[in-house]
Amino acid sequence: MSPPALATLQAMPIFGAVRTEVLQLLVRHSATVDVPKGAFFFRENDTAESLFVLESGRVAILKQWNGEDHLLAYMGAGDCFGEMALMDLAPRSASALATEASTALELRTGSLLEVYEKDLEQFALIQMNLGREVSRRLRLADERLFRVRVGACGPDPADETIHST
After folding, report:
1. How far is CA 58 from the centre of its chain?
2. Most exposed among 3, 75, 87, 114, judged by the fewest C-beta atoms under 10 Å?
3. Number of neighbours of residue 17 by Cβ within 10 angstroms
4. Which domain holds residue 124?
5. Is the four-CA dihedral 141, 10, 8, 84 of positive or negative sign?
6. pLDDT at residue 160 greater than cutoff 60
7. 120 Cβ partners below 8 Å, 6+ apart?
8. Residue 69 maps to which CATH number?
9. How many domains does the chain have?
10. Helix, strand, coil shares of the chain as percentages rounded to 5?
11. Treating both helix axes as pointing N-terminal to C-terminal, what angle do 20-28 and 109-118 enclose, rounded to 10 degrees?
12. How far is CA 146 from the centre of its chain?
């Protein structure tokens, strides 16, 4: 087990109040993924079977429209992306491009299934925390949509890194 990986998960809101032994199980079944600058962690419409916790680097979340990629957000160290895969089992809704050489911990859906089988209460807590993170991001998306609709000026929230805190 990787102590730095465990510490990374312990610091994340989506794993808030999750017991150490459950986090250790997740880390044991995870993989460290190194992605060079300019390469993708995943692309929009790929099969989604994991979430990524960025340990180092920077990732752009991109959505395609008319054959062009459009920036939704930047992710930095300590942020997670691909979390919808653990909730809706649908294909990827966007692409994740490493804008710097990046290292991430990949947590697969199968490891969450194991948590479900061993400790339903902890599984529910993780799902609730994931729901909060998705809700926080939805609020940000709602704010962006509102700004576009009313013609509000000012900095685009997509220009800022989305942090998990």
Report:
1. 12
2. 3
3. 10
4. 3-144
5. negative
6. no
7. none
8. 2.60.120.10
9. 1
10. 40, 25, 30
11. 140
12. 24
